[in-house]
Amino acid sequence: MIPENQNKALHAWQTSARYWDKHRDLITKMFAPLTSGLVEQAQIGIGQNVLDIGGGSGEPSLTISRIVGPTGSVTYTDPVAGMLESAQAEAARRGVTNIHFRQCSANDLPFETCTFDVAVGRLSAMFFADPIAAVREALRVLLEDGSVAFAVWGSSEANPFFSTVTNVIDRFLEGYPQDSDAPDTFRFAVPDKLAEILEQADAKNVIERQLDFRIEAAISFEQFWKLRTEMSDSLREKMGRLTPAQLPTVKQTVADAARKYFASGTMSFPAEALIVTGRKSAI
Ligand SMILES: C[S@@+](CC[C@H](N)C(=O)[O-])C[C@H]1O[C@@H](n2cnc3c(N)ncnc32)[C@H](O)[C@@H]1O
Fold it and tell me: Which of 31, 53, 157, 224 is least crowded, fewest Cβ atoms below 10 Å from its Cβ?
């Protein structure tokens, strides 16, 4: 049976799915450097069979399907039906035929031992119910010497795309229990934390690389505000707790704090992620 808190989290992702679908083009562009980092670190190439764990609205599966080409394949997984439907519809719209779709959790992968060359997860590892068990599962389904690679966010301070909004809202919600923006977004922000989990799960050659990049898109502050307040379940919930009178003040305060990231006329935030990779040892 799925524990209640996990059920609640998956339900929240189900609600988020429609917003991730709505903002898909922006999200694809903003987080493309994370996919490039994963592809590079895991050395993904033509003809490989790649597993995507927690593929959300379709990335990195869609990008990797182009890289592995018709002789390779991608197996997309996510436990949330709405996410899978959105990713599958987008693949069909693009005429992509080398992605297989399975609805499943990272902790219970319905695949044979020794199936994939590489397993990746972009911004999903922080939401795994039991990360060590999930990494063991990923290693189990990898071929001998196959690679696993996860992209997770660095610290909140190094990621103003998130903190510029949440710092302001949290000030207005003082007195309420503080649950930071998506409590688990920064779960692996502390250096080495995820790397140690890979080691505990028996991965070899574990490497953690810091990826500094910019989250950029040709959008205004208004569009950024809409994107952020729709995409995140915890922000949607917090916005619901503000009084109608507080809302315009909160938005204006965020606009003032975010002004420097829109100085060029479009959005450009500095960002920091960690890409953690490891290998399956000889059996
Ligand atoms: C922040 S989204 C990232 C989605 C996508 N990989 C991307 O980068 O756009 C996190 C994803 O993790 C998925 N997720 C949550 N719990 C999970 C679990 N236990 N196992 C695998 N995926 C999970 C969610 O359904 C969601 O699609």
Answer: 157
pLDDT of 2 reads 59
Domain ranges (residues) in the chain: 4-279
User: Which of 78, 103, 111, 130 gets mutated to test ligand 1 (max ligand atoms within 8 A of its CB)?
Assistant: 78
pLDDT in tens, 38-51: 999 999 999 999 99
4-279 topology per CATH: Rossmann fold (3.40.50)
Q: Which residues line ligand 1 (CB under 6 A)?
A: 13, 27, 31, 53-57, 59, 78-80, 83, 105-106, 122-124, 127-129
pTM of the model: 0.95
DSSP 171-194: HHTBTB----SSTTTTTT-STTHH
User: For residue 211, is pLDDT > 50?
Assistant: yes
